[in-house]
């Protein structure tokens, strides 16, 4: 699991005229009829870009609601969504939520359909009417975020925090390193140098694959940072968090 229930995203290291115009719990509907929870935060900035946030394995818990608001406060419309509308009709994503039962029932096509609905929402007036949209994902969502570049969403870019690029097993055709030939937008990958689940050579192989496919990209590894370092409580990684924020905001089209 990526974030504990008491984790909160770090504050953006910028100050300016941006503010939160509004927040809302919404129910979105994918093209296959799936209805799922999402949380939207819009910014006061006119002509702002937008992001769709792909959470970790627990789905739409407080970290990602807070993150959507932090994006809005930095001048970016944001919608975070829940993966489990097809398998769970509750709204509790707390400490006792048996998330892995539902993660095992997700599919790449189902996630992509939900992402498409969330993108449409961010582009709509109620989601902020974003001028351009990128995805930002974490761990489980980081891997899925990378691969949204191959889904024909018309994205400006995809961002993945600690998204595993390498195959989980020899038959893993969903590994980002194996899908880069289908990517159609730029990529930003953010990794921890002390993340034992994603070794340095895996990031290097992903870099080489993206280069070979001609995909504009930047992969950043923060020395000594663990998995889930992007956390307000992890004050020892404040510099890495600040740098990650600045890279993301520039990447999604926010003029700093």
Strand and helix layout:
Layout: E1 20-29, E2 35-43, E3 50-54, H1 62-73, E4 77-81, H2 99-103, H3 108-123, E5 133-138, H4 140-147, E6 157-161, H5 176-179, E7 186-192, H6 200-213, E8 217-222, H7 238-252
Parallel strand pairs: 3-4, 3-5, 5-6, 6-7, 7-8
Antiparallel strand pairs: 1-2, 2-4
- In total, the number of strands is 8
Order of helices and strands: EEEHEHHEHEHEHEH
Largest sheet report: 8 strands, mixed
What is the H level of CATH, i.e. the homologous superfamily? Answer: Alpha/Beta hydrolase fold, catalytic domain
Q: How many separate helices?
A: 7
In CATH, what is the class?
A: Alpha Beta
What are the segments in which pLDDT stays under 50 over at least 5 consecutive residues? Answer: none
- Structural class, by secondary structure, is alpha/beta
Instruction: Average the pLDDT over all residues and give the rounded result.
Output: 96
Q: What is the distance, rounded to the nearest whole angstrom, between the alpha carbons of the first and last residues?
A: 32 Å
Number of domains: 1
User: How do the strands of the widest beta sheet line up side by side?
Assistant: 1-2-4-3-5-6-7-8
Rg, Å, rounded:
17 Å
> Level of helix content?
25-40%
Beta-strand content bin: 15-25%
How would the global form be characterised?
Answer: globular
Output the CATH topology.
Rossmann fold
